[in-house]
Structures are given as structure tokens and as C-alpha cells.
Amino acid sequence: MPRTPAFLSAFQSFISKGNVVDLAIAVIMAGAFGKVVNSVVTLLMTNILEPALKDANVASLSQLPAGEVLVALINFIVIAFVCFVIVKTVEATKRKREAVEASKPDPQAQLASAMTRLTEVLEAQSSSRNS
Fold first, then answer.
1. What is the mean pLDDT of residues 6-17?
2. What is the DSSP string of the chain?
3. What is the per-residue pLDDT across 65-122, written as a single tens digit (0 to 9) for each?
4. How far apart are CA 8 and CA 16, in angstroms?
5. Which of 3, 9, 28, 76 is deepest in the core (most CB within 10 A)?
6. Tens digit of pLDDT for each residue in 54-66?
């Protein structure tokens, strides 16, 4: 029985790692986001295609033959597009941040330069006193 607390401790350590928790949150949010996109796509496509749906005597897009596939395909395209926009935005922000960091002067290089100048001035003063 002493192995059970060690097992539970190892499991708790595994679950407490940031990447596992982040992944769980991402999966939950993706599920919720998928439902929102599905609802919006269904609403928009139904409104856009309403005249054609009425002619076909169908209440919603998903009731058409292969309508579920069409809705799923549109959902996939919308989700892929939103992910693409998010990734591009994050990459652009990262590039801007890296450019700002690169344009900042290096404090160690500045300190080394100041020390070199100070050493040169002190040596010049020392040599002028000795002359």
C-alpha cells in the first residue's frame, strides 16, 4: 500500500505541469469555439441560402442531402481561417517584439565601452603626470 501515495504524487506532479494544464484548457476552449462557429455558420448559411432552401422545401442547411457534410466543411474552413489569422497575428507581434529587442543597445557592450574609455582616460592622465 505505500506505493499508492507515490503513484498519486507522481500523477499530481504530471497533472500540475504547465503544458498538460495548458493543453487541457486549449481542448476545452476549442470545443466551445467549434460549437460557436457551427452555430454561426449554420445561422449565416441558412439566412444566405434561405430562398434556395425554401424552394427545396427544407427548413435548414443540415437537412439537405449531404447538408451535414457541407456544414462540417464550412466549419472547418472557418476554423482554419481563424487559426491562420491568429497564428499570423502572433507571429507579427513576435517579430515586432524581436525587432524592438534587437534595436535596444546591449547594456554589457555599453558597459565594456565605458570601461575602455575610462581606462584610456586614466592611462592618459597617468602618463601626463609621469611626464
1. 82
2. -THHHHHHHHHHHHHHSHHHHHHHHHHHHHHHHHHHHHHHHHHHHHHHSHHHHHHTT-SSGGGSTTHHHHHHHHHHHHHHHHHHHHHHHHHHHHHHHHHHHHHSPPHHHHHHHHHHHHHHHHHHHHHHHH-
3. 887 888 788 878 888 888 888 889 989 999 998 888 878 888 888 888 888 998 998 8
4. 12
5. 76
6. 787 777 667 778 8
Name the CA radius of gyration of the chain, rounded: 32
Cell of 9: 504524487
Q: Are 81 and 87 in contact (CB under 8 A)?
A: no
* pLDDT tens, residue by residue, 30-40: 888 888 877 87
Q: How far apart are CA 101 and CA 71, in angstroms?
A: 45
